[in-house]
Amino acid sequence: MLSWRRLAFGGLSGLLFLRAAIVAWAGGNPASENVPPVAEAARVAFEVGLPAALRGLPQDARLLVVLAPPGRGEPRDRIGKLGGQAPTLIGVDVPAGSKAAKVRLGDGSAVFPWRALGELPAGRYAVQAVLMTNRDLWFPGAPGNWYSAASTVSVDPRQKQVVSVELTASEPVDALPAEREFVRYRKIRSEVLSRFWGREMFVRVGVVLPRSWETEPARRYPLVVDIGGYASRYDRAEGWLGAGGALRSAWTAPEAPQVIWVTMDGAGPLGDPYQVDSENHGPYGTALVEEILPALEHEFRAIGQPWARFTTGGSTGGWVSFALQVLYPDLFGGCWSGYPDPLDFRDFQLVNLYRDTNAFVNVDGFERPSARTVRGDVQFTMRHEVQYENVLGLGNRYTRSGGQWGAWNAAFGGRDASRLPVAAWDPRTGALNREAIEAWKRWDLRNVMETNWATLGPKLKGKLRVWVGEADEYFLNHAVHRMDGFLKQASPGAEARIEYGPGEKHGWAPRRFPELLKEMQEAADRGAPKESGREAYFKSRFMHGAACAHCKGGR
């Protein structure tokens, strides 16, 4: 979960429900009796010119117009900012096959953060248009997407005015970064994903190699699957190991454990695919364990055994690393999962998916926060965030936005007859779809473990490590406590390690990277075969030559 992405109402009468939903637009205070009317219809329009190459596209595209304060860089770079820093976004579909040379957006188009375009304050704005055309990587800056130059104009929504911009440039085509010392990149075709989507689909990964990989060609190594925060790309290791990189000294230190570190990609057709098999994203879990990992372990000389294969990550990566360990208990030897997305859906951020009836307002009729500061101040609400995703998504649907709530809905929810994600709640009112939520239960990891603990428990014993800050901005600590409660009473015992940081925010970790590496190496040592296989493992690990301290010690 990241800020770029960056439900609750049981037991009240239908009349009070309607009243609270209406009052929510006035700021969520049930004491407010006078709800401000929506401003008069906007007379301003934005007309975006499309070059000939963009007419008659074979797939639907999403056109965005971004308005932001002038003099602060390109408006498109502010897409994804929420709360007080949010730009104005206007969105409309460009249907497949459209031959239109110009597309108009105005009153009636989806808009964020206002209820309608007529509420936009008059003033000077930097204006820029973006056309999202990359159907495999659905985010505004994806390879091949088009955009206009930024221009500064005076806008008054109540005055008749047409603001014209032209799409003139596109993002660079999809290409793997150049390889550097220790770092390799691969783009691997997935047969199972290609079948699911009906077109060629690829998984991109970064591979960080241990310092001895080039000089010791007979040596084999443990492997770590690393998943980043929401929508983190596979090339994030690019800055880790360069000159002055944050992890270079830890990675290259003589005493540092030697492992292969694989960074997964957090981009897909519906946002972050969460690396699991789902009805909407497709079989990303199968692709990982049956196609990607075997190929990487063969090419880069991994040990290729469960006791030498681990998962880790934070936020989205915290959930995914935990889920991979739980869903594939025989394939992985342990997870190190930080500040994970909700592990128990009774606390999906601040929503109890099984009890509550509305995503946007709580049982007292107040707007539900989606993010807070460490001090507890509300940064933005669920309604605000979902409204943003509605503008980003095809068909004005957050379920197709590529944003955080859309990706969760795609990963955990079902699919309708049109092969589109079923919305878990109404994008305008927040009313939960109880039938849709039923499909989410199979991804409630606490529920999965509690239901199957007789068989899962022995396989997960001592393998689960989770940490979270108690002031997590996205309220993720609540679900960790729920999971902790189950693990503490589970029989057979889980021997899990759950750690909390009092007053700590999203991203807190109780130990530094070198300590994490050391723990993974110790886990591999404990899990290695006890007889001849163990001897071969330690020979592979430590036989560096006569100067090796480990070899001198007879280990």
What does it look like?
This protein is of the alpha/beta class. It folds into three domains: 44-170, Immunoglobulin-like (Sandwich); 183-345 and 444-549, Alpha/Beta hydrolase fold, catalytic domain (Rossmann fold), CATH 3.40.50.1820; 346-442, no CATH class. 25% of the residues lie in helices and 20% in strands. The protein is built from 14 helices and 21 strands. The protein has helices at residues 14-24, 191-197, 248-252, 284-299, 316-327, 382-392, 404-412, 434-440, 445-451, 453-460, 477-489, 513-527, 532-542, 549-552; strands at residues 44-49, 61-68, 88-94, 102-105, 110-112, 123-132, 146-148, 151-155, 161-170, 183-189, 202-208, 223-227, 260-264, 277-278, 282-283, 309-314, 335-338, 369-372, 378-381, 464-469, 497-501. Strands 1, 2, 3, 4, 5, 6, 7, 8 and 9 form a nine-stranded mixed sheet that branches. It has an eight-stranded mixed sheet with strand order 10-11-13-12-16-17-20-21, sandwiched between helices. The protein has a two-stranded antiparallel sheet with strand order 14-15. Strand 16, helix 5 (316-327) and strand 17 form a beta-alpha-beta unit. Helix 9 packs across helix 10.
